[in-house]
């Protein structure tokens, strides 16, 4: 297969060589080559990550922080080395600002629960209408249990969220702004740095959901100026069961612990307990040791390819996919912001998203169909489900063509 100019000499990024690192991409589905376009839900794993996990379980496994023997020391060193890799990945100022969690979901819950004592009846939490349910439900807990008020920042028809739309909602009762960095439905990139600057002037804490953004673009939390930033490993070509919460030293210190147990305490007495300093205060019990090591390997892999190179490759994929998808007259794309990632949610007139997904699956194409855990946003667009094709560092323009051909087949079938 010839290498398209846009994926070789123009950027220096050889996607065909990258694809060789992912064993699953060589398989067939229904007798057709797999075209995996469900990266927004979960990405595939390179051999380097698989090997790191196998090595950790097969040759270096022990519990961490508690033992003095060789294997425990080795596992602890590897576990904490992964924390340092996350620190560097986000450009946090200290490894103590990185908390390992099971997922972005747990990280957001950790913050929402931890701030609960500071939020009372009538206090306000600002969300955008684009949020994933994981960045909605934990704040509804505070609405239900504390009497907090949730306010929603709107987006326009193109999926653009303006800073002013957030600022207009702020009052002297606003305590938290919790907002996505990149929409998992439209791919919209939110101007988070400007939002954080506005919030900082008014003494408001900001949590950013980086579950998508951390995969597709460089992230510098110090430059952004957020209080909290979360992302998850399984979308970043790493294992499931691992995520990370960044918080400034001050922001983490103000949180009450979410889980209680071993590791998160200093001392336990019959009548009282004292808590460990962050990050261990939020890592009760045996942590996801091997998963963290796998995440570290995934970060090494991504950094080895170069995040700017990946972003450039995905930008070209986005531009090509936008052009090809708009050739289908009955197809409507939701979200056409100028600043967006290679994520396309769409509908085809008169055809249910599930039917589209099933038809193109027979052509080997894997996409997501449903609400994408973002029902408020779909309601804003007046739909109950869409298809979503989400691209990653190993996808190609050839795969875009396969997707479009499969969608055209679905149009003919249901037309």
Question: Could you characterize what this model shows?
Answer:
The chain has helices spanning 15-19, 47-59, 70-90, 104-114, 137-146, 163-167, 192-201, 213-216, 221-224, 249-253, 289-305, 307-325, 353-361, 375-381, 397-414; strands spanning 28-29, 32-33, 35-36, 98-101, 124-128, 149-153, 174-180, 205-209, 228-232, 243-247, 265-268, 273-275, 331-334, 343-348, 365-366, 368-370, 386-390. By secondary structure, the chain is an alpha/beta fold. The strands form five sheets. A seven-stranded mixed sheet has the order 4-10-9-8-7-5-6, sandwiched between helices. A hairpin with an 8-residue loop joins strand 13 (331-334) and strand 14. Helix 3 crosses helix 11, helix 4 (104-114) packs parallel to helix 5 and helix 13 packs across helix 15. It starts with 14 loop residues before the first helix and ends with a helix. Residues 1-9 have low confidence and may be disordered.
Query: What global shape is seen?
Result: globular
Number of helices: 15
Q: Averaging pLDDT over every residue, what do you get?
A: 96
The level of helicity is 25-40%
Q: Could you name the ranges where pLDDT drops below 50 across 5 or more consecutive residues?
A: 1-9
Give the strand line-up of the largest sheet: 4-10-9-8-7-5-6
Write down how many β-strands occur, each being a DSSP E stretch of 2 or more residues: 17
Cα(first) to Cα(last) distance is 33 Å
Beta-strand proportion = 15-25%
